[in-house]
Amino acid sequence: MKRLPFFNHCFGAGILALGVLLLAGCDEPQAGASIPETEETLYKDAQLLRETDPVSAREKLLQVISKRGSDNAPGSHLELGRIYLDRKQAVEAIYHFSQYVRLRPKSEQAEQVKDLINTAHKVFLQNLPGQPYSGNVNRDDLLQRLRMENDTLKGRNADLQNRVAQLERNSVSLLAAQREVPVSTPAAVDLQALSPAQPPPPPPPTAAQQIPATYTVQQGDSLYRISLKVYGTHSRWQEIYRANQHQMSSANDLKVGMVLNLPR
Length: 264
Prior knowledge:
By secondary structure, this protein is mainly alpha-helical. It is 54% helix and 2% strand. The protein has a two-stranded antiparallel sheet.
């Protein structure tokens, strides 16, 4: 059986599952063994070497599986899983532990082996490049955290879409209102009706005279909104910003109560 290389650029449980599936394809069932697995000489030798020479023990256990067939060597799968887990080779450990649980689902050790599988999952996550999940990682906790973050992002996205839709509706209403406002022409002044002692009425104030010299920032204001309030157009917000750069670090640096100079 070829040993699966540990890909340095793999990420997440999808790669982990793929590795386990690739390992699963390496064993082909052979004919049933004639003697119990624990009586195999190779198995006994592996048991003796497991602590002192785990590499040799691993090779002998792999020979047992090759000789007997994967389905007839649950003990070898279990021992290989432990060896691989001790060596932090999580993908191989998960594969062999899973094989044992498949072959001996009702054994006394089955539940313990399932816990070892969870431990191997944690080892896998902790040894990803860059260690994005270093520390005491629980797979269920991680999945729950990712679901919560995903739900939060969905909520923010929906809120932004609603705000964009509302702005579009407001813009359409504003344009419609501007089209409906009639353009009035100034009334003609009858100069002859004016007495010599009565001066003509002063001309209407110019647009520059109507614009205040300063503006006090209110709750919810932005330069974009202030430009619309003061000048009737959004396009002059950059002029307001340039006129107040001495007190603003950026165009968004607005504080309620701040007094802005208004260019004319």
